């Protein structure tokens, strides 16, 4: 016998696949897609797609096989409380909070989400910020493991939907800071270079990285990054501010390497030439400095994240201002296009 579940108020705006992930965490995405293709899952009696956004009061048809006890999330089971160490760690990352969201300053070295062999990550620690509320905080975007800086976390499902939609529409101004080996030429411009995954890297030969390709090549995804040089240490190092227009994997890292000025500590894209020297650490010098985005409750929000210790040390060494809060792209002239070599 089939059953139906109604979309609650705090679930308005969430994607259908996310709704199933919340209520049926053991249901694999591929299995859900099959149920949708065959019409076994319907919304208000109509066929639906995984990416459809839900509305309050809609009914979702639940096929019989999903009513098995092992498919549904336990309703009354008490979740184990996060330990005090995790709670202190996560609270220490919060640089802004309100009723709709948190903004964290993610440290370098910890992944945003889990994966093969990853047991400790930001997503898995978000329960420490739940503070007794019914809804668990949820990520709306991510940063690479070794990239530090601004990470926005929604506190409610409607906030998550609103923020995700703003990011999808590119209605967000994100600025990154990087320390590069060498000075990009010209000193400000735009890189428009499509990227595609390339395999066969790392000690095991199973790692992936992004490589520049022609727009019409298989797997190519358009990628655009504005950049400007904020400071230089002779011609050896540069403080570069970057504004990604698109959000491809490793986009900033690949684009700076394409310019011939890879990020210090980025061995995947710069090889041994990007090793730190003297007081400069052998760690990735890339930081999500700030974000300006539409707030779920109205208006716009702007938050900046302080540099991590290893980057602050480099900034002080070269006499760069680690507290600069300017938007170098606000009055920037039409940037020059850097074409693929």
Quick rundown:
This protein has helices at residues 16-23, 29-37, 84-93, 122-125, 157-168, 251-258, 267-270, 309-318; strands spanning 3-6, 42-43, 46-47, 59-62, 94-97, 101-106, 138-139, 148-154, 172-181, 188-192, 194-201, 207-213, 224-233, 237-244, 286-294, 300-304, 337-338. The protein has 341 residues and is α+β, with helices and mostly antiparallel strands.
Structure keywords:
about 30% strand; about 350 residues; eleven-stranded mixed sheet; Pseudouridine synthase; 8 helices; alpha+beta; Structural Genomics Hypothetical 15.5 Kd Protein In mrcA-pckA Intergenic Region, Chain A; disordered C terminus; 17 strands
Task: Explain this structure.
The chain has three domains: 3-67, Roll (Structural Genomics Hypothetical 15.5 Kd Protein In mrcA-pckA Intergenic Region, Chain A), CATH 3.10.290.10; 84-168, 2-Layer Sandwich (Pseudouridine synthase); 173-338, Pseudouridine synthase, CATH 3.30.2350.10. It contains eight helices and 17 strands. It has helices at 16-23, 29-37, 84-93, 122-125, 157-168, 251-258, 267-270, 309-318, and strands at 3-6, 42-43, 46-47, 59-62, 94-97, 101-106, 138-139, 148-154, 172-181, 188-192, 194-201, 207-213, 224-233, 237-244, 286-294, 300-304, 337-338. Strands 5, 6, 7, 8, 9, 10, 13, 14, 15, 16 and 17 form an eleven-stranded mixed beta sheet that branches. Strand 5 and strand 6 form a beta hairpin. The radius of gyration is 22 Å and the shape is globular.
